[in-house]
Design goal:
alpha/beta, Rossmann fold, 4 strands
C-alpha cells in the first residue's frame, strides 16, 4: 500500500441497506482520511434505501450519514469506478455469491455479521440489534485501522483482513 494514498475498501452485502452501510460509514469516520470506504449490494431491491434504524444508529453514535445510499455492486465493476484495494463481504449470502470481476483484483475477506434488520420485536429491541452490530463492526475496524498498512502488500492485506474475521 502506498503512503498518503487512502486505502479503498468496499463492503458488500445482499441489499446494501444495513451491515454494509454501517461498515462504510464507520470506516470513513474512524479512518480519518487514511481509508475511503464504500458499500454496495449484490441484489439491492428496486428503490432500496439504507435502513432507517441503521441511519438512526449511526447518527446517535455521532457518525455522518451524508451521502449514504444503497447501490448495486455492478457500479464498482465498471472501468471508471474507484479502484478497490480490499473487498469485504459482511453477510453470508453475499459471501457465497459469484462476485463480478473487480478491476485491479483487490484483496478479499469475509466478516460475517447477523442481519440486524431481521430482528423482530419492539423498536427499542430492533434499534439495539443495530447498536450491537455497529459495536461488533467497530471492534474489528479498530484493529484493522491500526495495522501497518504501508508495509503490507496485497497478500499481507488479504491475510490480515481474513484473520480479523476470527476476532
Amino acid at each position: 500500500m502506498t503512503p498518503n494514498t487512502p486505502l479503498n475498501v468496499l463492503f458488500l452485502c445482499t441489499h446494501n441497506s444495513a451491515r454494509s452501510i454501517l461498515a462504510e460509514a464507520l470506516l470513513n469516520h474512524m479512518g480519518k482520511g487514511r481509508f475511503q470506504a464504500y458499500s454496495a449490494g449484490s441484489s439491492p431491491r428496486e428503490n432500496q434505501r439504507p435502513n432507517p434504524l441503521g441511519l438512526k444508529t449511526l447518527e446517535n453514535a455521532g457518525i455522518s450519514t451524508e451521502g449514504l445510499h444503497s447501490k448495486s455492486w455492478d457500479f464498482f465493476a465498471t472501468p471508471d469506478a474507484p479502484h478497490m484495494d480490499l473487498v469485504i463481504t459482511v453477510c453470508d449470502n453475499a459471501a457465497g455469491e459469484v462476485c463480478p470481476y473487480w478491476p485491479g483484483q483487490p484483496a478479499t475477506a469475509h466478516w460475517g455479521y447477523a442481519d440486524p434488520s431481521a430482528v423482530e420485536g419492539s423498536d427499542e429491541q430492533r434499534l439495539e440489534a443495530f447498536r450491537q452490530t455497529l459495536h461488533l463492526i467497530h471492534r474489528r475496524l479498530e484493529i484493522f485501522i491500526n495495522l501497518p498498512l504501508n508495509s503490507l502488500d496485497k497478500m499481507g492485506l488479504e491475510q490480515s483482513a481474513r484473520e480479523l474475521a476470527r476476532t
